[in-house]
Structure formats: C-alpha cells, structure tokens
Amino acid sequence: MRLIIGLGNPGEKYEKTRHNIGFLVVGKIAEKRGITFRLESMYDSRYAEMGDFEHRIKLVEPQTFMNESGKAVGKTKNFFKVDSEDIWVIHDDVDLEPGKVRINLGGSSAGHKGVQSIIDAIGPEFWRIRIGVGKSDKIPTESWVLMSFEDTEKLENMVDMIADFVLESLSKGIKEETINI
Fold first, then answer.
1. SS3 156
2. Which residue ranges form the domains of the chain, and what is each CATH number?
3. Contact at 8 Å (CB) between 85 and 126?
4. What's the CA gap between 88 and 131, in Å, rounded?
5. pLDDT in tens, 82-133
6. By C-alpha distance, which of 169, 178, 65 is closest to 132?
7. In the structure, what pLDDT confidence band is assigned to residue 150 with cuts at 50, 70 and 90?
8. Which residues, in sequence order, are bridge partners of residue 92?
9. 166 with 25: CB under 8 angstroms?
10. Mean pLDDT in the chain?
11. What confidence tens digit (pLDDT) does each residue in 16-40 have?
C-alpha cells in the first residue's frame, strides 16, 4: 500500500491558498480517477482509495490543521502498517519559485511546520513532493502561505500537471529530481 498525502488546512477559507496546494493536487488525482473522498474520523483524515488489492493507494487529506499533520499521518501509517518509504507527502515550499517541483526522500523540514509535525510522528524517511509557491519580500511567510493564488488559471494548470506527474510516478517509480512545471 502507498499513501499519497496532500497537506493543507481544512475549511473553505483555506481552499485556494498556497498552503493548500497538497489538497489541490490529491483532489485533482481523485477527480482524474473518478474517486471520491470520505471522512474517516479515526484517522483525522479524508481519504479516497484507488488501485487493486495488491497495489492499493490511499489519497489522504489530514483534517488537522497544517501544524498538526503528523497526528493524522501517524494514525494512518500505523493503522495500515505502511512503510515510511511508501508515503509521499505533497506540500508547498516557499523556497522554490512557482512552477518548480522538487522530489526528495528524507531530509529536514526546512522550516515547514506541517512537514516537521510528520517527521516528529513517523521519522524523516518519507518522500516529499515540494511544490514551489515562492515568497514575498513584503509579506511575512506565515501570511503569504495563507493567501490565495492571484492567477487561478495558472494554478489549475500547475495542479493538473503535478497530478499527472504523480500518477505517472505511481507506475514508473519515484526518484529524487527537480522538475519545472
């Protein structure tokens, strides 16, 4: 089994914010596969399943706030007995310019509190799909990530391409790399 975890904050007011790019990508994957999310309070998450019995994939949206993502990820990992290397976490990264995506296994949180919460819960050896959202010289990072994207058409195209990339990686395998979307 593999867990594809999109990070974000629950609630309508956060839907199209930079911090919710992980939710947007896993939502697009579910849409492309014609599957729907359901709330599973036992894991503090919404999830959708795809694949066959031997190759099950769970798309997960933790319903804790970003800084407590590790609670939901830890519960889900432990319940389904998933190896950390079979967990892919999709999240925003202010240190990457928009349109860049960096994939790596392990490492530090680089200051991302949601990722740090997951590291605290399960350790650092999981895959990160870091999506560049850039940063502002004038707006504090904590405010920047909670702001909506200005160009929604560009956002939708980026989310669509990243969803395709993740789906392709499920069949071809994932590797450390940086790509431009």
1. helix
2. 2-180 (3.40.50.1470)
3. yes
4. 13
5. 999 999 999 999 999 998 999 999 999 999 999 999 999 999 999 999 999 9
6. 178
7. confident
8. 131
9. yes
10. 94
11. 999 999 999 999 999 999 999 999 9
Cα gap 100→88, rounded to integer Å = 17
* pTM for this model (two decimals): 0.95
Distance CA 12, CA 108 (A): 30
Reported as a pLDDT band with limits 50, 70 and 90, residue 79 is: very high
3-state secondary structure of 123: coil
Catalytic residue among 19, 55, 91, 112: 19
Can you tell me the distance from the alpha carbon of 88 to that of 14, in angstroms, rounded to the nearest whole number? 22
Dist. CA 74–CA 170, nearest whole Å: 22
Residue partners of 100: CB distance under 8 A and separation at least 6: 132, 178, 179, 180, 181
Asked whether residue 47 is marked as a ligand-binding residue, the answer is: no
**Residue showing tokens 């795809």:** 50
- Catalytic annotation on 19? yes
C-alpha–C-alpha distance, residues 157 and 98, integer Å: 12
Q: Is 37 annotated as a binding residue?
A: no
Is there a binding annotation on residue 149?
no
